[in-house]
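hiii so um. not sure if this is the right channel but i have a protein structure encoded as tokens and i wanna go backwards to a sequence. like what aa goes where. can anyone help
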């Protein structure tokens, strides 16, 4: 009887992650490896064409990661570089590669906010869900990768409810609010412009309305319709994107959260001399660095915005060990599920053989519970020692012997 063996794209040992994040690279490097939605979709389609049936892309302001079930993580590195026009040696200088359990643990940390630039920041969770949705739409989310993602989401939920890792309102979008409140003591009547709805623009808009409601808030975006809808939702002003230059010049605070691959805010925009605060939450950077040379202008990029939360982060450090216990426990559950998943085709084959043997060699009526008991016993044996050939023969022999004796 041929024995079923799982193919490489269903094995946890072949789960790989290749990525670039804030730990080893600044915004300029991360910007080079950033993937737009269009580029992400192309990479996923490329993975399917290369018979990598499980593949997912996560690209945020702090990281770009490609997850895949493949023979060699070099395949993922190659696709990432092809779709960002970067060189492999540049990736190796700044990136990282994880495989097997180490990769799954990393994913769980990402989903749980343990690997966020601001520890405990759960904004990444909605982005991970969206990435899984896009992967499914492109046919690159097979059953094993989908289960891994589901376990990651469950881990995140457990950590959020059972620990204080996310205590306090902490995120990059909220950090931006804290900087504005610190730099501008009286916000009443000040003009705040949010340019670019971006990947978490809704969070920024919500925080602006909630914490800086006394200011005059305006939204603009390369797609006017998106900015208009958001402005209506939060009772803010809508600025057509063609008026970005004049609106920036008039604003006291400009927040940029765009996925554009070029500078959208230029020094030439600012013709009126006055104090200004500019916050660039984009990767790649969207505010030209020379803007900070304009008198009265203060410029923060996304890395600098994150630094103000160090105090809160230190309070969350004590919760890391609790979070890791949950991660390790969930990882054990995933490994156990996968063991059963991998053995399922084999157990079904043995079960089929037992039915056939019963019809040929046993005169008594086959009882479901006897076959179920034999398969359950085999499943337990496989947990402790995976020697399918010998265990299959032993199960068939024991079943025949016991049932022959009982019918004699």
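sure thing!! here u go:
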């Amino acid at each position: 009887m041929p024995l079923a063996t799982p193919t490489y794209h269903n094995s946890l040992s072949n789960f790989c992650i290749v990525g670039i994040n804030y730990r080893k690279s600044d915004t300029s490097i991360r910007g080079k490896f950033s993937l737009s939605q269009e580029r992400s979709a192309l990479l996923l389609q490329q993975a399917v064409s290369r018979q990598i049936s499980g593949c997912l892309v996560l690209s945020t302001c702090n990281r770009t990661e490609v997850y895949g079930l493949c023979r060699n993580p070099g395949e993922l590195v190659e696709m990432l570089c092809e779709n960002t026009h970067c060189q492999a040696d540049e990736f190796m200088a700044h990136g990282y590669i994880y495989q097997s359990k180490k990769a799954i643990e990393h994913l769980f940390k990402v989903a749980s906010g343990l690997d966020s630039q601001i520890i405990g920041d759960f904004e990444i969770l909605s982005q991970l869900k969206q990435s899984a949705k896009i992967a499914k739409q492109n046919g690159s989310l097979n059953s094993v990768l989908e289960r891994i993602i589901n376990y990651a989401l469950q881990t995140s939920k457990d950590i959020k409810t059972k620990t204080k890792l996310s205590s306090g309102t902490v995120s990059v979008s909220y950090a931006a609010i804290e900087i504005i409140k610190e730099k501008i003591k009286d916000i009443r009547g000040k003009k705040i412009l949010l340019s670019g709805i971006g990947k978490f623009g809704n969070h920024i808009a919500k925080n602006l309305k909630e914490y800086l409601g006394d200011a005059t808030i305006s939204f603009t975006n390369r797609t006017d319709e998106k900015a208009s809808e958001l402005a209506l939702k939060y009772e803010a002003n809508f600025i057509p994107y063609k008026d970005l230059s004049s609106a920036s010049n008039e604003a006291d605070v400009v927040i940029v959260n765009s996925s554009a691959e070029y500078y959208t805010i230029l020094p030439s925009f600012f013709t009126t001399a006055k104090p200004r605060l500019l916050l660039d939450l984009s990767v790649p950077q969207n505010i030209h660095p020379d803007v900070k040379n304009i008198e009265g202008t203060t410029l923060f990029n996304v890395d600098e915005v994150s630094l103000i939360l160090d105090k809160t982060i230190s309070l969350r450090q004590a919760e890391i060990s609790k979070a890791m216990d949950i991660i390790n426990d969930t990882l054990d559950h995933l490994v156990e599920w996968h063991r059963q998943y991998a053995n399922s085709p084999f157990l079904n084959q043995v079960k089929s053989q037992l039915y056939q043997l019963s019809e040929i060699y046993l005169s008594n009526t086959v009882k479901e519970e006897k076959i179920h008991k034999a398969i359950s016993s085999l499943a337990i044996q496989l947990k402790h020692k995976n020697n399918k050939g010998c265990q299959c023969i032993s199960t068939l022999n024991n079943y025949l012997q016991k049932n022959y004796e009982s019918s004699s």
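oh and The chain is about 55% helix and 10% strand.
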